[in-house]
Fold:
Amino acid sequence: MNKKQKKMLKQIIAAVILVAILKLLPSFPTPVELALYCIPYLVVGWDVLRKAIKGIKNRQPFDECFLMAVATVGAFALGDYVEGCAVIIFYQIGELFQSVAVGKSRQSISSLMDIRPDYANIEGEDGKLEQVDPDEVEIGTTIVVQPGERIPIDGIILEGASALNTAALTGESLPRDVKAGDEVISGCVNVTGLLKIQTTKEFGESTVSKILDLVENSSMKKARAENFITRFARVYTPAVCYGALALAFLPPIVLLLTGQSARFGDWIYRALTFLVISCPCALVISIPLSFFGGIGGASACGILVKGSTYLEELARTGVVVFDKTGTLTQGTFKVTGIYPTEGTSQDALVEAAALTESWSKHPISLSVKAAYGKEIDQSRVTDVEELGGYGVTAKVDGKAVACGNARLMAKLNLTVPAVTEAGTIVHVAIDGKYAGYLLIADVVKPHSAQAIKGLKQAGVRKTVMLTGDAEPVAKAVSAELGLDEYHAGLLPGDKVDQIEKLLASKQPKENLAFVGDGVNDAPVLSRADIGIAMGALGSDAAIEAADVVLMDDDPAKIALAMRIARRTNGIVYQNIVFALGVKGICLILGALGIASMWTAIFADVGVMVIAVLNATRALYTKDLAKKNEA
Structure:
């Protein structure tokens, strides 16, 4: 607890002790007893009275402090001193409980604030390190990050190799190995080696700044349930105040007119009980707390939700549409098959292709060189000629080698076998003879199939893939992952058209989520009901365009995000039904004179405590994370 909360706890304990002592003492004359009971009342309830008076001065009297002040002062006026003190004490206990719960939720989200760097190291001319404010570091500056320090600004490693702890950003504990030439982002902790990094962004535009800004502003976008409660409280509070006033005076007047005893004290007591019961604390506090807890729990799993409205909408997602490259697949080409002709070994085929492609920077060439896995001696390669739309020819150890597509082989009057597998085919000819081919494909991510299965289990009705790749590739990936539908050969504009069609065909009250890598998919992310950016570590476009940002490239986190959203929404509706149900019953009982002030205390503080306890469940996501991994 913070200083203010500890002070309130001491005041509550002091008030309880004083009331208990006064209860045990013999009776005093009424004025003396009133004065004595005012002491514990003011010890614990002075700030409630002050806020109520301030609200009346500002012409905004109808809030919970006003209700409590009227109810407790009224109880004192009727001579029910113990009950008046009890109401204010239990109200403050509930407020303290709520304050601690909100603090715990804020602590969960503010733990993200630990990623904010305090300084950046710049190496001076004498070799000494100078600590400067990250805001003062310009683009292109070389900064030094020592082991144990947090990377302050996005950049590229110039010197050094290390392992980075990305847990604060992704929720994953596995370190990420980096070396010279790799891009690194702010917020990661350098674990082992010393790194020299050339900055590529200003601090204000770096990943850590954007994430912090996103989290800090997440409470600005309220869910419909929150807006409903705000509007409800504005109408409900004055309504119950006027209802209590009517209950205090109309029945006695009717009784007087019919010649019966008015019993004003009895009806005023009922009205005060009615006021205590009607206090909307449970709803006003627990609903935002539930969403706040859900956002905090999701952030601990590396899932950033831009506001409670998106958490609410995510829970109603029935159609999930995926981009392929970089989302369901790794977005990097890899040799997945080596098929030499008779008389040629696999090693010889790969070596000839890698040496021929050694001068090319094309992604296909890079994947062939990666498959070779050895240092390339470019002195063995001469007469390199890159033929646009065909491939590459060269002399390797004096032998003529050609690597490329079927058109290149046809140009050399060579016949190639029919290939049915999905992927890019690189044919190889050595010394004028066909030597075989390499199959190159964009590799499916390890967790993609699990992600699709998890979404089905989470209640998603339909999964769709949109890709610019050719039909055979799309068909193979779709079949491997178990997708319901796919559309191939699409340009960025075509993807938007497909989204429009899917939006038109979705069921009522069902949302469509689009999952992309956030770089080329901004138009589609914005058009979908929910935009989810995958693999968004350092992607500006993702953080700007998406409603939900997954801080690593694990597609299985989508199902986890949906489960968190559905649990949070479930907790919200549980609290609404429970609070309104209990209060409705108690209000009727209070109006009929069956419910006492002690029942009113339970209906107010008891319901609030139970609702807040239930709301804090939204913070706990470990069980959902384990279920998602299973």
Summary: Residues 155 and 199 are 4 Å apart (CA to CA). The chain has a mean pLDDT of 83. The longest strand covers residues 329-340. The two ends are 37 Å apart (CA to CA).
